[in-house]
Write a structure and sequence with these properties.
Length: about 240
């Protein structure tokens, strides 16, 4: 049998007082973990931090900066406008003649000779015209079109332009054909002249952005009756509408 005075293996032997606790200043066989060199400190703002682009102060500064830049840009444009005083070019249809005009079986044959005057009213800006296209219309139906040579205009310059059109046996729709025949019974036929060009405006050494210039010379009446095949512009020079 086992000796009852022998301590049970796995448990510490009782001390003199019969307690199982070790006496004072007794060392354990294993080392205690060293204390942390930097004790943890709770930061109440760590979890609640807001990204910088969501902070009210950043948004307010960004909006103020954008408004300030817009104001500065507007002031620069206003000063430029006061100095340069840009104006839209002016165009006039000075002459429009028609010859060999006939309409048979919905087919149109005709020759047009148009003359225009382009005027640059600007005192400090010159204009350069490229890709100049022109056309003759009737009731929004194109009858003939042609390309004109490019040209330049200095300040306060007037330039004479010529455009020739020709069409032989071209099909024409009923709307335009009926309108032409109706006008011829009254002694004159109305045509629409259109011009479109890519213009470059230049101020001293500065070249501004290129813009499309569109010219409309609508309802230009030509003396053309049912008994003749040629006629000229009625009522003298006709001022055209210009848009940029």
């Amino acid at each position: 049998m086992d000796n009852p005075s022998r301590p049970v293996s796995g448990y510490p032997a009782p001390n003199q007082n019969g307690h199982l606790h070790p006496p004072p200043n007794t060392a354990y066989p294993y080392a205690a973990p060293p204390p942390s060199s930097q004790p943890y400190a709770y930061n109440p703002y760590y979890q609640a931090q807001t990204p910088i682009y969501r902070r009210p102060a950043f948004v307010r500064s960004f909006v103020i900066t954008m408004i300030a830049l817009a104001i500065i840009f507007g002031v620069i444009l206003f000063v430029f406008w006061l100095v340069v005083r840009p104006r839209v070019p002016e165009f006039s249809l000075t002459s429009l003649s028609v010859s060999n005009f006939s309409t048979n079986n919905s087919q149109l044959t005709a020759n047009w000779d148009a003359r225009l005057q382009a005027y640059n009213p600007n005192k400090k800006m010159s204009v350069y015209y490229d890709d100049v296209d022109s056309a003759i219309f009737r009731d929004s139906v194109p009858l003939s079109q042609t390309q004109m040579p490019p040209f330049n205009q200095g300040t306060r310059n007037r330039t004479e332009l010529n455009a020739k059109f020709a069409v032989v046996g071209s099909y024409i729709g009923n709307k335009a054909l009926n309108g032409i025949n109706s006008d011829r019974s009254g002694g004159s036929v109305k045509f629409d002249f259109r011009l479109e060009a890519l213009a470059r405006f230049k101020y001293r050494g500065w070249r501004l952005r290129r813009k499309w210039v569109r010219v409309w010379c609508d309802d230009a009446a030509v003396s053309l009756s049912s008994n003749n095949q040629s006629g000229n512009l009625v009522g003298g020079s006709k001022k055209c509408r210009v848009a940029i």
